[in-house]
Every structure is written in C-alpha cells, then in structure tokens.
Amino acid sequence: MPSIFSRIIDGELPGRFVWKDESCVVFLSNRPLRPGHALVVPRAEVDHWIDLEAGLLAHLTETAQAVGKAQLAGFKPVRIGMMVAGIEVPHCHIHVVPIRGVHDLDFGNQDPDPDPAMMDDAAATIRRELNKLGYAEVSE
Fold first, then answer.
1. Contacts of 32 (CB under 8 A, 6+ apart)
2. Which of 43, 69, 70, 37 is nearest to 56 (CA)?
3. 27 contacts 12 by C-beta, under 8 angstroms
4. pLDDT at position 87, please?
5. Exposed, middle or buried: residue 115 (CB in 10 Å: 0-12, 13-18, 19+)?
6. Could you say which of 5, 8, 32, 131 would form a disulfide bridge with 91 (CB–CB 3.0 to 4.6 Å)?
C-alpha cells in the first residue's frame, strides 16, 4: 500500500507543494511546527534515510538547503532547522523548519489544525522567495 506521502505526490490527497523535480517534491507539513514547515520527500518510496542512494540523499539535502534559504528570506527566523526523524510516516522525508530556538523542533508543538489562510500564505512566501533565488523547480 502506498504511503500517505506517495498518495500526496500522486495527487490522491491534497498538498501545498512549493517544489517539484524528477527526484523529489517539497510540500508543507499539514501539522506544522512553525509557519512554513516544509517536508522534502523523495518520489521513490524509501522508508529509512540510511537506505537512500548517496546521490539522492545529496539531492534531498541540496533541495532542503534551497528551501531553507527561501524560508530564511521570507520568514526571518533566528535559524532554519533541518531534521530527519522518520517515525511518523514510513517514507523518508526531511523537515525544514523556520525556528526561533531548538524548542521549535519538538513534535509536541505541532499544530493539529493550522489555519488554511496561514498555510496558503506560507506556501506563497516560500514559492516567491524560491523564485527570487532563481530556482526553476518552484511548484505553482
């Protein structure tokens, strides 16, 4: 059975995409830790990050860095947090989160019912900043 992320990638379930390329996608977390919390997800359904090919892992990290630069410009946080936890969905993904401190990376702080307008604004902010940075992979 496909993971929930594969179903989002395939369009079966909704997602607020900000990036698409042949190897991965980036969409906003539906339970964000902070506004702009994005997930970098390989198209290939690989459960654990240690099982990724080195080239794909490098690409995911480079994509996370691009998204982090856009978040930094658009949200003006203290830092951009990047984390691979791998507990909640059996499909490898990298969390990229605008943070004020390490407490913002605590999954106990997830928003289970984020405001749709905030989510739309966050996605638009990341897309706008990715466009300004010259990335062609921005998903409209």
1. 97, 110, 111, 114, 119, 122
2. 43
3. no
4. 86
5. exposed
6. 5
Which phi and psi angles does 35 have, rounded to 5°? -55, 135
25 close to 19: Cβ distance less than 8 angstroms: yes
Tally of residues, the chain: 140
Predicted confidence at residue 70, as pLDDT, reads 98
> For the segment 49-78, what is each residue's pLDDT rounded down to a tens digit?
999 999 999 999 999 999 999 999 999 999
Cα–Cα distance list, 88 to 27, 57, 66, 84, 122 (Å):
16, 19, 24, 11, 22
What is the arithmetic mean of pLDDT over 94-112? 96
Model pTM?
A: 0.97
Give CA separation, 11 vs 15, 66, 73, 74, 92, in Å: 8, 24, 29, 27, 18
What six digits make up the tokens of 120? 């739309």
